[in-house]
């Protein structure tokens, strides 16, 4: 399974919403011109590898996919939105520490597992 991939409007339903029924999806909405995005995105990609498929990372270029950014009220970049079982379950925006990211990821994975287990 691919752990990180680019998403556009045409693939959003399949690559984010539908896939989130199988595994949590963290959607990273950012832009090339955004300095914090250029720092956070590689960190999230490394964490996707560290977590070995417990979640996948969906990268969305806000400039190329304004409808996705707008429908998710991404007012600042980067905006990270967690999807689980087809629903938005959590979010944050701006640069964060690795420890914050790990807590966010673990909370999202636990949420996803709690629904599977019911």
How would you describe this structure to a colleague?
This protein has 118 residues and is of the alpha/beta class. Helices cover 41% and strands 24% of the residues. Strands 1-3-2-4-5 form a five-stranded mixed β-sheet, with helices on both faces. Strand 2, helix 2 (35-50) and strand 3 form a beta-alpha-beta unit. The longest helix has 19 residues, at 98-116. It is globular. The two termini are 25 Å apart. The model has no long low-confidence stretch (mean pLDDT 95).
Give the termini separation.
25 Å
User: Count the helices. How many?
Assistant: 4
- The CATH topology assignment is Glutaredoxin
Which regions are unreliable across 5 or more consecutive residues at pLDDT < 50? none
Order of helical and strand elements: EHEHEHEEH
What descriptors fit this protein?
alpha/beta, about 120 residues, Glutaredoxin, 5 strands
Briefly characterize the structure.
This protein is an alpha/beta fold. It is built from four helices and five strands, in the order βαβαβαββα. The chain has a five-stranded mixed β-sheet, with helices on both faces.
Give the topology.
Elements: E1 4-6, H1 12-18, E2 25-30, H2 35-50, E3 56-61, H3 66-71, E4 79-84, E5 87-93, H4 98-116
Parallel strand pairs: 1-3, 2-3
Antiparallel strand pairs: 2-4, 4-5
